[in-house]
Structure of Trehalose-6-phosphatase:
Amino acid sequence: MTLSPEDVIKAYHDIIFCLIGDVSENGACGIDIVAQFKPYDNSRVAVPRNINAAFLISLSGNNHSEYNTAIEYLKEMKSDPLWTNLVTFYREGLCLLLKEFQNFCSNSSDGVARTEELMTKLARHKGSLSSSETIQEEIWKLFHPEASEILGNKESQADALRNERKIEITDLNSRPVGNVPQEVIFTANALLTVPPVGKGLKDLSIKPGLWNALQEVVQEDQLFWYDHPVQIGVGPDRNEILYGLHHLSESLLFEKKLGNAAEKDELTVILSASVTHEGLQGIVKEYIEYELEKGGDLPGLKVYLFTEAETAGLIHEILVPAVNRYFNDIKDPSSLLREVVGVNGKYGRHYSFLKAITAFWQVFEDPDKKATFKIDLDQVFPQEKLLEETEKSAFQHMMSPLWGAEGVDTQGNTVYLGMMAGALVNEKDISASLFTPDVTYPSPPFRGEDTVFCSRVPQALSTLSEMMTRYKKGGIDGDNWCISRIHVTGGTNGILIHALRKYRPFTPVFIGRAEDQAYILSALFPEVKTPALRYFHNDGLFMRHDKHAFAGEAIKAAAIGKIVGDYERILYFSKYAGIISPDVDAVKSVINPFTGSFVSPLSQNLAYLRLALKAAGFFATKDEEDKYKGAALVETGTRRLHSCIQDVSKGGVNGLKERYEREKEAWALYYDILDEIESALKKGDQFAIELRERAKKLIRDARVITDENS
């Protein structure tokens, strides 16, 4: 079945036309886009609204009654210096999206069939498009197939996914984690940004010595965006760093009372610090140390803080000298290692570092360490609830012999369960049960961006099928069978250091969202005769997600950046999947439904349409604050997505594939260095011994004194 080039163009315009509607028709998106196009209104909020609406109207083709007016409006506004970049982004999109759709119909095995099926259903449909579940399903089948055929088949879809994830255990780990304080390194990332808007620096809860530096930093452009970074100067009750560490300390005390840890035991906690503005790098360590000092003791925690300065020291004082001593023909190892070893930048950078530093720790500081477990600082172990509902504490869950077990998946592939994943429960839901999913199915009708891409549908399926699975006798019992996980969260996951050093997984530094789910992709397909590295689902290991209980202001401040980051995620994941394997369908067959839904042959269409429809949703409300959010989203989103599209489209030495290969080479060098030094230390090599002393000093200097008895 084929469509002529002219038919493809017409089909695309007709689909967008039906999505947004015309003057007298209700489009499938459920928003009156035409009502938002008022060229005569040139107020500060109205102009980005008009440009956004004109883009959607122009994309729907010349059958739209406002098509010519919209085209002329975009042409006119392009000459206004204030709006040139925004209009340029949208005008470029008119060509980009159509070209991508044409390629989709030409190259995708079922692109034409999906297009024709939607067109047939649209032609036969009578009545409102926005209230039709049939039309909604067909739109998802075209733009977001991972969301289709789920809502009407929840139970069967959940059973099918759970069965796909089944692992038959062939060998349990004969030497699992037995002493969490002695064998597990806990890691977390502190995300920091400038003070809240409108707050005078002298009114902030910070050292006076930081005032001058902050005055300069707040004038800088923001470089990186995080979900809800700590705003420097907030009170201790809203400081996520203090919150997470205090609760981790309390969890250790709880374990001691149960006898799962000795009274003298301490947890090793490695904290990285990532910042949104470049100037914060110079003050972040002083700020965190001051806040921890003010916040009081953290009994039982040995906290080590790594900023970009400490990671630079690690490279130049330890790793590069080791390369120069033990390796030949490594060109410019400093530059190579700096690409990956660090904590500042997008999420992928610090996420990989917090895993990799534990292998460094094992070689140079403590060979008894055998695993690492990452927490997010807005998450806590609900110890009493864990005991009540699972009969195990957090530490007891980590001692599972499934962590490090071997098995066979449903395709007959051997797997090594060197990684572990738990689950989250929202603070507001935990009174009902630990096993209350933190993501639930949405209900129709769908509106705005959800009509083309609704990640919550496959996310809810994955949450219910994977994260909520409880092992029971007679089925998936946790002894002979378990399930593996693809969908994991940024905290509540761990990896054995043996697995880390053997498989060397990493998240590329260009990944700015879902770094946790990207981590396994670099090791998704193993070498021949090597078991595939996978997460095992640790049923009952929950952390309570408390972000809404104390970080509301930070969440609100970062909301627009988070929205745009989700659109960037589609662009980067779609490109990354093609880098991992030329067979993208094979990648998706492993990572569907949720993670895989961000890998799409229509990634640019999804990024543009989601942005425009999300903004239209803000503009459609009567709330003035929402209208300003719409304007902010359009201005921020177009700027960041323009840069992102350029990034994923690059070729040559700066292309994503080349950057990925360099990062892979850099991490291989990093782990080769550790292997070489470990071997040299066993032989009593004097240079290796001197490096170890340097490394120990670097680690000592990174220690943050948080307990007066330490």
